[in-house]
Design goal:
mainly beta, six-stranded mixed beta sheet, 6 strands
Length: 121
């Protein structure tokens, strides 16, 4: 697991309970990774808790990188939801595999946090 995910607070910590659904959630932050297994998702090809998202995501350590080419599949990735990680496993994006590619040995930036931008007062 990558440090940005391992070191993040778990769901419900810090007296903050992230929303169960977030249709307006977007990619908020990226982190650098090196020699990682990733999935590149384009054109809104991923859904999570009603959010439609794109980007490059680090695959969970236990996620196979040999994805069959079914139209849609749940893929576990290392990404925070409103700044927090799930307690027991990584989030599972529902991805349209026709809009994805898997890369082994990727060095670059991955989506590390998905949520809504804070509204200015």
């Amino acid at each position: 697991m990558h440090a940005f995910y391992l070191n993040a607070p778990s769901w419900g910590m810090d007296n903050f309970e992230p929303p169960r659904r977030g249709p307006l959630a977007i990619q908020l932050k990226t982190e650098p990774v090196r020699n990682a297994r990733v999935i590149h998702v384009k054109d809104g090809g991923a859904k999570y808790r009603e959010a439609v998202i794109s980007g490059t995501f680090a695959l969970a350590d236990y996620q196979s990188d040999n994805l069959d080419r079914k139209l849609w599949k749940f893929v576990h990735v290392q990404v925070l939801w409103y700044g927090q990680k799930l307690k027991k496993q990584c989030p599972d994006l529902h991805v349209d595999l026709s809009k994805t590619t898997v890369e082994i040995g990727y060095t670059g930036r991955v989506v590390s946090n998905v949520g809504e931008r804070k509204k200015k007062a």
